[in-house]
Specification:
Blueprint lengths: L17 H4 L28 E6 L1 H9 L4 E4 L18 E6 L2 H11 L5 E5 L5 H8 L1 H6 L4
Parallel strand pairs: 1-2, 1-3, 3-4
Length: about 140
């Protein structure tokens, strides 16, 4: 999405201001009343012993760009119980918490996953770490 001057919102740190710039649409152009959907479900069929779970589409894309299978919940209060069984077959599921509400969300999710491991990020979200410090810095967060 672009602002009124034609600049991309994510490059100017304005991704969360979408509703102010485009007040008649959802944050990601969804329709009113649409149910939440797990983002990047194609990661669930990749051959991997681990999976990363984040909150937010941009952070999901950051992990995917780093070559790591990752799915994203569209918000901290959006998790659906019927998504949980898809995570049970992994050796470890890294639950990335990037702020206070994210930590509460991931701690709750971890209580339902015997293979869940909460990783609390420091000061920056996954997307910012990838852009500023690169792939290896992001992968260090999960010990890869």
């Amino acid at each position: 999405m672009k602002d009124a001057d034609g600049s991309y919102l994510f490059l100017s740190g304005q991704k969360e201001r979408h509703s102010q710039v485009h007040p008649k649409s959802g944050k990601y152009m969804s329709l009113p009343g649409d149910p939440p959907r797990l983002f990047n479900t194609s990661a669930l069929i990749e051959a991997s012993r681990f999976l990363v779970v984040v909150e937010g589409e941009f952070d999901t894309m950051a992990w995917a760009l780093a070559g790591t299978p990752c799915v994203g919940a569209p918000g901290t209060g959006s998790w659906r119980e019927y998504w949980t069984p898809a995570l049970l077959g992994y050796h470890v599921v890294y639950l990335i918490a990037e702020d206070g509400p994210g930590l509460t969300f991931m701690d709750d999710l971890a209580s339902h996953l015997p293979n869940g491991k909460v990783i609390q990020m420091s000061n920056k979200d996954s997307n910012a770490i990838l852009i500023e410090s690169g792939r290896s810095s992001l992968l260090e967060r999960i010990g890869k």
